[in-house]
User: Fold these one by one.
Assistant:
Number 1:
Amino acid sequence: MQGEPLFWLTKIEDIAAQLEHIYQKAVEEFEKLSPPVAHLAPNELYINQEYFLRKINDSQVVEVSSQLLQNYDLSLDFEITPQHALSKSIERLLEEWIENYQKGIKTFFLSDNENQHKRMEKIMSDLLVDYNRKNASNYDVKELFVPLSLNLYLSPRER
C-alpha cells in the first residue's frame, strides 16, 4: 500500500486469532510436503498474529468494537441503529423515513452503486406523490434520506 493506510476494524483480536489459526494450518501442511519439490515456507506466504498486531499498532486504526485493542483518549458514539425488518415493504420504509425526519433523525442510504441511489430516489419520489396527496403533506425525497457512496477498495492483489 502506498502512503499511510487507515484501517477501520472490528474485533481486532478475533482477526488476529483467525490469522494465527490459518498460519498454523499452513505450517502443519508445509511440514507434510515432500522435500524434492521447492515450496515457499508459510512465513513467505502468510502473516501470523504477531506480525498483524505489530503492523496494526504501527498504523492508523479506527477500532469499531466494544473490546478495544488499546485505550484511547477520544471515542465516537454514532448513536446509530440498523433498519428495522420491514418485510420488503417499500411503503413501510417510506413511512419510517418520514417518522425519522419528523423526529430530526437523519437517514443514510448506503450503496456502492450510484444507480441504486437514483433508483431509490425515483421509487421514493413516486411513492411520495401519493403519500403527500393522501396526508396533505409536502415532503420532498431529498429531505428524507441522504445517499452515501459505500465504496470498498481492494488492493490489486485482492481483486
Number 2:
Amino acid sequence: MTRAIDKKDKKRFSGAVLIIIGRIMLVLTLFGTGFLVARGANAIALVRPSFFFIVGYCFAIAGVRVASGVWSGSLQVLHQSAAISAVSLLACLLLGMRSHFAANRSAFWIVILLSLAMLISWLIRALPRNNKKSWWLGK
C-alpha cells in the first residue's frame, strides 16, 4: 500500500517540476517576445523565442499529463502563463513609458492592448462556471 502511494507521489512531484519549468519558460518567452515587439525588433529576432515557447509548452503539457493523468488542464497553463507575462510586461512597458522610450510606436500600443487582452481572457476563464453567465450579463 505505501509503495503505491510513493509511486503516485513521485509522479505528481515530477509532473509539478515539469509544469514549473514549462511555466517559467512560457512566461519568460511571452514577456521577451512582447518586449522585443514593443521595441521594434525584426522578424528574425522572434525565431528563438518561438522555439522556447514550443519547448516550454511541451514541458507544461507533459507535466499536466504526468501529474494528473488527464489532458484537460493543459490550456489553463497557457492562460495563466500569458496572464503572468502580461502583468509583468504591462508593468515594464508602462514604467518605460514614464522614461519616454518608444511610446510613439504603434507596435508599443498594440503590445499593450494584447497584454490587456491576455489578462482579461484569463480573468474570464478563471471565473467559476456557474457565475460566468450572471457576471457577463450583469444579472
Number 3:
Amino acid sequence: MTAVGFGNPYLKKEPVDFTKQPDALLTTDEAKSRTYWFLYDRNVGVAAMGVQHPQTDLTRLLCRFRDSSGFRQEMCESLRYIAVSSGKKPVSLSVKQVLLPPDISILPFKFDPAVWCPLSWYGNSCVFELDEKHKQLVQKVQKILMESPIAPLYGFVEPHCLCLNAYRLLDPLRKGELFPNNADDAEWKDCHTTVYERTKGVLASAPWTYIPLSFERADCTTISLAPTGQQCAKAIKSWASALQESSGLRSSATNREMMQLTFAFEVFPLEGETASQARRDVVKQITDLLLAEWGTMEFADPKLVCWRTHTEFVSYRDFMQEAGSA
C-alpha cells in the first residue's frame, strides 16, 4: 500500500490514510516504471500523492490536516527538507522536478481554499425554498458531515441559501446565450432584468405552482428527491418547458440535478481507504435520518434568484433594490 503517516514506524503502526489503488503502487514488473508526484501545501494543510501530473483527477491519496486531531498541521508548518527512501524493496528513483505545490482543489474558479471562502460566481435561476421543518432537517444532515473525520474536505451551504435549484438559467459561462453580440460588456443587472422580463408570465403562476417530492437517496453533498407520482412528474416537466420557452434558455441542470438539493460541496478530492470508509459511514447516517424524517416536502412558490457565489443568492427583488441604492 501507499500511505501517509507520522513517525517511523507510524504511531501504533497505523497510517493517517492509505491507498491500494493499483496505479498508486510499485509495478510488479521490474522493467517498467511509473511516475508519481508528492505534495504538501502548508497554506491549506494538504498532503497528497498521485500519478503522472499533479491535478485533481490524478490524485490517489489526500489528507487535510487542518482542524484534524493532534498537531499534524503544526508539525508540518515549517517543513523544509524531504528524505526519500525505498523501504523494504530496493528500487531505482529519478527525481524529475521540485516546484511549488499546485492547486489541486476541485472548484478553483468558485472557491478559494487558502482563505476558505467562495469566489464571485454570478448567475440566476428559479429555485424552490425549504419549509422550516425540512430546513432544520437538512441542517441536521450538515451537522453529521461537519462532525465526521472527512469534514475538512468539504464546504457547506449557508442555511438561508438551502434550496432546490430547479431551473438554472444563466452563469458566467452562458451570458453569450442571452447577449450573443456583446456578452462581455453586458452588466449582470441587465442580464437579470432581461431574464425577469422574459419569464415574468411564468413566474406569475408561482403562488399556485406546487411540487410534492419524496426522499430518494443521499450522498455527502446532495439529497436526491423524486416526484410523488406521475402527475407530479408531468407538472415539473410542463413548468420547466414553460420556463425554457419564455426565457429562450435551456436549464444547465440535468433531469437528475434538477431534483437534487445541495447542502455541501467537495473542496478537495476524497481519496484514501480510511476517508472512503468514513464517507460510507456518513452516507449511511444521512440516509437513515432522511428515511425516518423526510416524508414529503411540498415545494411551492418558485422564485427567480440572483447568485453571488455558487452557493449564495438573493431574490431578484432584493438584488434590484440593492442595485438601485448603489
